[in-house]
Structure formats: C-alpha cells, structure tokens
Design brief:
Blueprint: H1 3-22, E1 38-39, E2 49-53, E3 65-68, E4 71-74, E5 79-84, E6 91-99, E7 113-119, E8 131-136, E9 145-148, E10 157-164, E11 170-172, E12 177-182, E13 186-187, E14 216-223, E15 226-231, E16 234-243, E17 248-254, E18 258-266
Antiparallel strand pairs: 1-18, 2-5, 3-4, 4-18, 5-17, 6-14, 6-18, 7-8, 7-17, 8-9, 9-13, 10-11, 10-12, 10-16, 14-15, 15-16
C-alpha cells in the first residue's frame, strides 16, 4: 500500500470516528433491549445490583441498601447509588417509591434520583455519581432532567424544547425553543412551581407526585436518543438528541430514606 493510500485510509478512519461521536454515541452491543419484563429488583435480595458509596466505595458496611418485607430500603445514610450490573437501551423503566422518615437533618426537600444511561468509572470524577442523565425525585421537582457530566466534557448532553418561567428557569414545553443541556445543567419539568421554596415536605401548586407517605410511580421511556418522563401517568418532561443512548440504571442515596416496591424494565410497546 502506498503512503498516499495509507494516509487516505487513516483520514477516512479518523473522519468515521468523529462522525460516530457526533451522532450521539451508538449503544454498544452489550446494551440489552428488553424482550419482556425484567425485574431489576426481585423483592428478595440484591441479585443483579451492586452498591457504590462515596466514603466506602463498593463496600456497604452500614447496609444503606437492603431488602425489608419485600421492599428495597435505601436508608439515605451517605451518598452513592445502587446500580444495575448490566447496561440497557430502548426500554420503559418503572420505579415506584415512597419516602421514609430519615432526613439529612436540614430544612430542604427530600432528595433522590434515578440515573439513566450511566457510563464510565464508578463515582465519576468526584467519587459520587457516574456520568448519566438524572431523572430527579426531589420533592416538587420530580421529573426534572439533570445532566451529570463525566470526565469528558460534552459527552453527556440532551436537547429539549423549552420556555423560560418567571424564575428564568427552562421548563419543557411542546413546541418551545430548542436548547442544549450539558455540563451539570438542569431542565425543569413542565409545571414546576416558580414560587416553590423547596422546604421539607412542602408541595408545589401543580405537583403530580404523591404526598409523603404515599407511593409515586415514575416511568422513564428511553427510545433511541429520546427520553420521556411520566409521573403518576402524566407526561412531565421530554428530551431528544440524548447522549449516550444506553447504559446502566442507578438509584441514588442522597441523605434521605426511600422505599422502592417496583424497579423494572419492559419493552417500549408493553
């Protein structure tokens, strides 16, 4: 092969790599597309799941994550997550949860989240969260989408059609102005109350999550590079041009006690 041919081949390979990255990180062959219902939590033990805590790494000496009476009990003692052992793509995720009594001792809302399309090293750059797109579970903010960047700037991103509320925060709105979110930026759900003060156990005037002590159902519909979030059957947020398009699924511990009775995947047409 001549030098010119080699150079041309290298150029094609290089351009191909750039195009692959610009197209939004195609899911790898290891990412599973559900063919039926997959119970990520089986109601008996933590099979198929692994824990990560900022202070103790892969060890969970305080039993932050445990099973009690058929429920997944997240004590809230520490910061970290419970992760699926495998990566997934093109699915409907259902999480049904309710808050416990433990708080972080502060005055602000109970806080946790579902991390979608999680990739990269455990804990990410700061040792707490993997690179991912968070579906927020904090009181009054359920369904917000937050970009959690990894070590590579711009690797995790999404686009949504938005309007600015009176608090100057971008909220999803069908037919709104497209905006790209990356680098730890937040997209608020469509009817987030601009006057909500985010104090413990308070509610926004249009919240669709259930009151404290009752079960809330969150659905994350991930199809290709699109994410739709539903809370108790109501669509509250949408994003497209999401990157990456697949990854592990994580449940956070963030200082507040949480009980989960359903954590499962199914096909999008299920």
């Amino acid at each position: 092969m001549s030098r010119m041919t080699i150079k041309a081949a290298c150029l094609v390979i290089g351009l191909g790599s750039i195009l692959d990255r610009s197209m939004g990180d195609e899911p790898g062959p290891a990412a599973i597309r559900p063919g039926g219902v997959i119970r990520l939590f089986n109601g008996k033990d933590l099979t198929g799941l692994r824990s990560w805590l900022k202070d103790t790494g892969k060890d969970d000496p305080r039993r932050v994550f445990r099973v009690e009476d058929g429920l997944l009990h997240i004590s809230g003692d520490g910061f970290g997550y419970l992760a699926t052992d495998r990566s997934y793509r093109d699915y409907r995720l259902v999480v049904e949860y309710r808050w416990g009594e433990r708080t972080d001792g502060g005055k602000f809302v109970r806080n946790s989240g579902i991390l979608l399309h999680a990739t990269g090293p455990e804990g990410g750059p700061e040792g707490t969260w993997k690179a991912s797109v968070e579906c927020q579970l904090a009181q009054g903010c359920v369904g917000d989408l937050i970009v959690i960047p990894g070590e590579e700037p711009g690797r995790v991103k999404l686009t949504s059609d938005v309007v600015l509320g009176p608090d100057n925060r971008p909220r999803w709105k069908e037919g709104g102005t497209p905006r790209v979110f990356h680098g730890d930026r937040q997209l608020w759900w469509s009817k987030h109350d601009p006057d909500f003060q985010e104090f413990l156990d308070t509610r926004g005037r249009d919240d669709v999550e259930s009151p404290k002590g009752e079960w809330t159902r969150v659905e994350c519909l991930c199809e290709g590079d699109r994410i739709e979030i539903r809370v108790n059957g109501v669509t509250v947020n949408k994003a497209y041009e999401v990157s990456p398009r697949a990854g592990e699924i994580l449940l956070q511990t963030e200082g507040f006690e949480l009980f989960v009775r359903k954590f499962e995947l199914s096909p999008l047409n299920h």
